[in-house]
Structures are given as C-alpha cells and as structure tokens.
C-alpha cells in the first residue's frame, strides 16, 4: 500500500556503526509488513523508496552540534530525566570511532533528503517526511513512566505488543528499536507528538500520549 492511499506505510530505522549498519521495520495499517537490514545507506534508501512510506523515523542525530556541546533537543530530554548521547561537532564526529553510528545516521539523512524533507517543527505533514527520534524517549512516552535502559529489550517488546504490533520476527534489539520508531511516525502524522529542539540543530520527535 502506498502513501497516497488512505492508510500510509511508515518506516522506522535503527542506526548502528560500521559492523551493525541499518535495521528497518515497515508498518502498514499499524501492522508489521516488512523488515530489512543492510550496511549501506543507499541500499536502505532504495528499500524505502520501493515501499514508498509517507514518513520515515530514524534513531540517529539528524544534525551535528554547532557548538560541540549537546544540542538543544538533547538538553531538553535530559531535563526530563531522559539521557541521550550528546552529538558532537561534525569534525569530531567524523574523526572519532565512537561516533561512527552518528556518521552513518548523518549519511542516511543526507541520502534521504531528495525524497523526504526533514521535520522542521511544524505540526502538519503534507508531503513525505523523515525525522529523528529516540527509542528510550519513545518507550517512556508510551509507558507514561520512567523506564530503565537495562531492561530495554523486555520493556520495548512489551510496549510494541500493547500497541498491537507483532514482535515474532523482531529477532534482535535493533529491529525492536526500529519498530518503536515506526509508530512514532503514526503519531507525527496524527499530530499527537511532542518535539524537542530547534531548526538549527534538529528536532527529536516522540509520541504525546
């Protein structure tokens, strides 16, 4: 089913480093319809374009820090008790091995850009869009309480089941996290979301429940 139909396809993508790559899950009518893994950002975008989702949610920073310190969206999450890795400047992010997954995420956003505009803080979704999200913040929003990251596989799988999403084929935490990004896209389409951050350094989108 295409995004032009009454029920849009949405995709969630979990981003890892060089060895892990990208894991993605597609939902149609809020049911898991496809999953895909690749080490290559171009292959991931080609897969997305074949499915033609209306919104793509990505677990990776959409922008580098302009100051070298935590972005506004990360500071706002921290003020809510949700810890997120601080995104560095582009020069540090591209030169330090620890940030390889962020570099992969930046590359994915870059390759997606001609086909999916980046969420800019506006509530209306009138054309195909991509956005940054954060599974721990999504899980906390859906659970409506603080959750320990140590129990993330159990908690996040339970929340997906409660949302009516089958986890049978989600064979690792990367697919589970991707699957959490996907229903967040539904919240963005419906307008039931909260965003943290600004246009300059990017927004993180989570459900508002």
- Helix coverage percent: 25-40%
Alpha carbon gyration radius:
16 Å
CATH class category: Alpha Beta
SSE pattern = EEEHEHHHEEHHHEE
Q: Strand order, biggest sheet?
A: 3-2-1-4-6-5
- Structural class category: alpha/beta
Number of helical segments with 4 or more residues: 7
Q: Using the coordinates shown, work out and report the CATH topology.
A: Nucleotidyltransferase, domain 5
The largest pleated sheet is described as: 6 strands, mixed
How far the N terminus sits from the C terminus, by CA atoms, comes to 27 Å
Kindly report the name of the CATH homologous superfamily. Answer: Ribonuclease H-like superfamily/Ribonuclease H
Model description:
By secondary structure, this protein is an alpha/beta fold. It has a single domain (9-207), classed as 2-Layer Sandwich (Nucleotidyltransferase, domain 5), CATH 3.30.420. Helix content is 36%, strand content 22%. It has seven helices and eight strands; from the N terminus they run E-E-E-H-E-H-H-H-E-E-H-H-H-E-E. The chain has helices at 41-51, 72-79, 90-95, 100-112, 135-143, 152-162, 173-190; strands at residues 9-15, 22-28, 31-38, 55-59, 117-118, 129-132, 193-198, 202-207. The strands form two sheets. It has a six-stranded mixed sheet with strand order 3-2-1-4-6-5. A two-stranded antiparallel sheet has the order 7-8. A hairpin with a 6-residue loop joins strand 1 and strand 2. Helix 1 (41-51) packs across helix 4 (100-112), helix 5 (135-143) packs across helix 6 and helix 6 crosses helix 7 (173-190). The longest helix has 18 residues, at 173-190. The relative contact order is 0.21. Mean pLDDT is 92; it is low at 1-5.
């Amino acid at each position: 089913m295409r995004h032009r139909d009454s029920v849009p396809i949405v995709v969630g993508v979990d981003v890892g480093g060089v060895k892990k790559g990208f894991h993605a899950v597609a939902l149609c009518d809020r049911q898991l319809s496809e999953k895909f893994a690749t080490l290559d950002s171009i292959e991931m975008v080609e897969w997305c374009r074949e499915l033609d989702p209306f919104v793509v949610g990505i677990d990776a920073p959409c922008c580098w820090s302009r100051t070298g310190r935590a972005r506004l969206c990360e500071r706002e999450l921290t003020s809510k008790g949700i810890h997120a890795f601080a995104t560095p400047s582009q020069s540090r992010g591209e030169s330090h091995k620890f940030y390889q997954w962020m570099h992969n995420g930046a590359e994915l956003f870059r390759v997606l850009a001609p086909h999916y505009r980046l969420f800019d803080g506006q509530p209306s979704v009138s054309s195909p869009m991509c956005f940054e999200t954060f599974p721990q913040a999504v899980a906390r929003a859906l659970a409506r309480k603080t959750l320990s990251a140590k129990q993330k596989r159990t908690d996040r799988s339970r929340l997906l089941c409660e949302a009516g999403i089958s986890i049978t084929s989600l064979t690792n935490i990367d697919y589970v996290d991707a699957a959490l990004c996907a229903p967040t896209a539904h919240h963005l389409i419906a307008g039931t979301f909260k965003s943290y951050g600004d246009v300059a350094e990017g927004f993180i989108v989570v459900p508002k429940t």
